[in-house]
Amino acid sequence: MLYLEHLNLVVKDIPQALKFYQVAFPHWRIRGEGQSTWYGKPRRWLHFGDDDIYLALSDHGESDIRDNRAFQVGLSHFAFVTNELTNITQRLMAAGFVGVQGDGAAGVRNNTYFIDSDGYEIELVEYLTADIGQKNDY
Questions:
Q1: What CATH number has the domain bearing residue 38?
Q2: Beta strand 54-58 pairing with 6-10
Q3: Residue 67 located in a structural domain
Q4: pLDDT at 69
Q5: What percent of the chain has pLDDT over 90?
Q6: Helical pair 85-94 and 14-24, crossing angle rounded to 10 deg
Q7: How far is it, in rounded angstroms, from Cα 32 to Cα 46?
Q8: CA–CA separation, 23 and 90 (whole Å)
Q9: 88/75 Cα distance (integer angstroms)
Q10: Which of 10, 88, 89, 135 has its CB 3.0 to 4.6 Å from that of 61, i.e. a possible disulfide?
Q11: Is 93 helix (H, G, I), strand (E, B) or coil?
């Protein structure tokens, strides 16, 4: 078995970062938190998720992340699959986050992109079919 357990995101301010993720994933919880040092720099860390997947947030960020409209090497975006895209999108927009509808694929998938408070782009995908061939037809 192989699956993605967590993403480790360096942020500037954990409470500010949590505002997005708590609205997007209200069923998640703080799994653990503490303080440590990373290559000599003090940091606060927090794990936010459920029993299987979580985001590891660390507050020692000092600069902005790469511009997704440019061509620097680095993380472009990450995606979560949901069966309630409309509800999550409405919650996030009501909380002040701006979503941009993706191209999707008629009858196959819908998707929306959001930017969190640190500039990470998060894609939310809702598949309308269980057919793997259709899901992977780009």
A1: 3.10.180.10
A2: parallel
A3: no
A4: 82
A5: 70
A6: 140
A7: 6
A8: 10
A9: 23
A10: 10
A11: helix
pTM of the model: 0.90
pLDDT value, residue 49: 98
Distance CA 138, CA 135 (A): 8
Gap between the Cα atoms of 36 and 135, Å rounded: 42
Sorted by sequence, the CB contacts under 8 Å of residue 27 that are 6+ apart come out as 50
Counting as low any pLDDT under 70, the low residues of the chain are: none
Closest CA relative to residue 16, chosen from 135, 108, 119: 119
Residues 6+ apart with CB under 8 A from 29: 48, 49, 50
Distance CA 48, CA 28 (A): 7
Q: Are residues 4 and 38 in the same domain?
A: yes
- Return the bridge partners of 50, or none: none
